[in-house]
Design a protein that fits this description.
The protein is an alpha/beta fold and 718 residues long. The protein contains 34 helices and 17 strands.
Length: 718
Amino acid sequence: MNPKTILKNIFGYDEFRPLQEEIINTILTKKDSVVIMPTGGGKSLCFQIPALIFDGLTIVISPLISLMKDQVQQLTELGINAVFLNSSLSAEDYRINEELILNKKAKLLYVAPETLTMKKTLNLLSSVKVDCITVDEAHCISEWGHDFRPEYRQIADISLNFKNVVIAAFTATATPQVQDDIAKNLKLKNPKKFVASFNRKKLYLQISPKTDPLTQIISFLEKYPNQSGIIYCFSRRQVDELYEELHYRKFSVRPYHAGLSDAERKKHQEEFIRDDVQIIVATIAFGMGINKPNVRFVIHHDLPKNIESYYQEIGRAGRDGLQSHCLLLFGYGDISKINYFIDQKEEKEKRIAKMHLDALIRYAESYNCRRVPLLSYFGENYTKENCGMCDNCSKEEKDLVDVTTEAQKFLSCIKRTGEIFGAMHIVDVLRGSKSQKVIDKNHHLLSTYGIGKDISKEQWLSLSRQFIQRNIIEKDYEYGSIKVTELGKEVLKGTSKVKGKLTAEEFKYKTQKDISLDYDNELFLLLKFKRKEIADKSSVPPYVIFPDKTLMEMATYFPQTEETLNRIHGVGTQKLVKYGQTFLNVIRKYAFDNSKEEKLPVKKIKKVKPLKSNKRFMEIGNAYKECFSVEELSAKFAIQPKTIISHLTTYVREGNKINTDLLTDLIETNEEKQKEVFAAFEKLGVNYLRPVFDELEETVSYDDLHILRICYLKKIIE
């Protein structure tokens, strides 16, 4: 099997995403690699496809039980033999999985680093061939990462137990410094580094001042009825309070935090994953490794600790490639809460945490496109002027007014108070406050005292945030003081103008809906209902059956036959056999009742240079006709025998006749079995060999199937 065939046949996708094919080929050639790919970018396929091609076992080191369970469920549904070993298994199930590994029935083993280091695990693995070790969430190995786990440091030594093993490290969030740290700590040999773009184009990024968070969140949720979403809070208490408020208002919601029992957390997570509950209100304890594709929004009720955490958490939205909304409510009070916890750390950890927090605040206060500072943090230069998918790029210049006079008042007051106070004190002076602090500092005697009474305190604080965003003033995030920048001095002189909003910022947003598919919503809901019914019977999450994107395509194109259904995104051969007729029945009935006609799904086809490709298979086919054997052709063209067979298959598919005598000598399968193979081709077609391989209960090798397919095609032509 080659990667492209597996991609379509098993996973149901027509094309690789950027970098996937190159990463897969690197792993297959046993070269170590570090892969930085955003959440939802298709990391799993990069090691799952090589695992199906390797003879031996692929070990996937994963930090969370929920992640392992989710991945194994999805692979099992696709007909792939995958197992996990962890404490959630009963003694009997643990033993069964060990037997599958020993008997070489498992292609992938998911395991936590703690389990991998156990003596009994190492003894088990010493008796099987291991081809690949995949380190998922590899940033956990770095002290500079946001989720450092010391047990990850043992992986490098354990890998020495296996000969000729390739190590592939994967993570979604790693700065250039963390990337280098991963390679160093895993002791990778001349690793090839792959860094995909961190830009998640379909995520709408919005940051709004936190004024009345409950009202803001309820207003937001009302725009996304019956949609899945996650709301992150800083503390357990905040989770419980927000959950109670939303539950009282009849939202479909559950809480999730470390204060709940294991059974409660597990139950709430399962309800969310299986679409029994739409919204989870959670601390950051929730979500790592959750692969629910149809999360339409992520709300941060409070400020995250750092950009890595923020990026990872918003990355749980829109994994199906459809548009999703990410809202962060930004309140300056949250900064002091985080700083309090940072101050409890050791000096080195404290310094790193402060740097991370400062970077997040600069991002939150940025006036330019959100993607510029966000991607810059991960070492990526974003040059597009307007992303069209963030609040700053959505703002219209006509909404802004000249606030140069207000800026000059504010800057002058900063200078006269010595540039050692925060925005709140400056606003008090401008508005003529009689507070003890203002009087004690004699700031009531300054010329700027009381010159800003004409606008409200909220307006001044809103302007102060805009001045930071405009780089007119800068803030010391450790002490809270603000200073005038070089650009601010130009404003004071009157040589530079400032535009902004005089009115306090309102909470506005636009609902994000993907319009790339004009699907029939009624049929989509019927298909969702059928999917839920099947999922509940099988005790798996609905997205394991099909993701929303697949159902949307079905509700767009109304496929009436298995052939057309097979062209839908995410419908591979395995799922076509298992669920094809069930979903076709729903579509056919709806199409008949509503006079809908089938449309042919339009797929993007890669542009190729046909002349070069045609020349190659024609050249090899014609050489074979001159009685060159496969071995001789392999030497003549300096390519593998398998590639020769592939070119001969194309040659025959194009209608060229050949004599197969030189090929049949290579077949090990007896004549009786060959008849069964031809019968299977008759029944299942010749496009994919995996269904034929399964139909024959794995009794005929893929090498023989490739040759017998040519023989079968030859018979059809004749």
